[in-house]
Design brief:
Elements lengths: L4 H7 L18 H10 L18 H23 L5 H9 L2 H6 L2 H8 L22
Helix pairs in contact: 3-4, 3-6
Length: 134
């Protein structure tokens, strides 16, 4: 008998492939954790408010909307920084969160580069984040 293609296949050595584990575990590397956190979609925190009456005054609703825009922008900016240095890098670039909340709303919007054409800034002219007069 001559060598047939079937007999040649059986004479070949079988190759096995083993997958190697990574050199650094995912939980022990800050850089790998930062990459994993970046890829995960984090939704901005929503403010929980209780509505006691169906009629809200216009300044209160404008203030609530301004707070939500400021909180969302702060959350979005902080999410871009590495996890361990978020507050420090944010403070260096923009100032502390408490400082931003103590500014007039228009100044906070300008500092955080938030478009405010959708809000009635005339109602919020002298108010800060907490609704106190500045």
């Amino acid at each position: 008998m001559e060598n047939t293609p079937d007999s040649q296949k059986s004479a070949r050595a079988k190759v096995s492939v083993n997958e190697l584990s990574p050199l650094v575990a995912h939980g022990k590397s800050k850089k790998l954790a930062a990459i994993a956190n970046k890829s995960a979609i984090i939704s901005p925190p929503t403010a929980k408010t209780a509505v006691f009456s169906s009629v809200k005054s216009e300044p209160d609703s404008a203030l609530q909307q301004a707070r939500q825009l400021i909180d969302a922008r702060i959350h979005d900016i902080m999410r871009r920084f590495p996890e361990g240095r978020r507050t420090k890098l944010f403070t260096i670039r923009f100032g502390s969160v408490a400082k931003i909340q103590s500014l007039e709303i228009k100044a906070a919007f300008k500092l955080l580069d938030i478009p405010y054409q959708q809000l009635n800034m005339r109602l919020l002219a002298t108010l800060n984040y907490h609704g106190d007069s500045v």
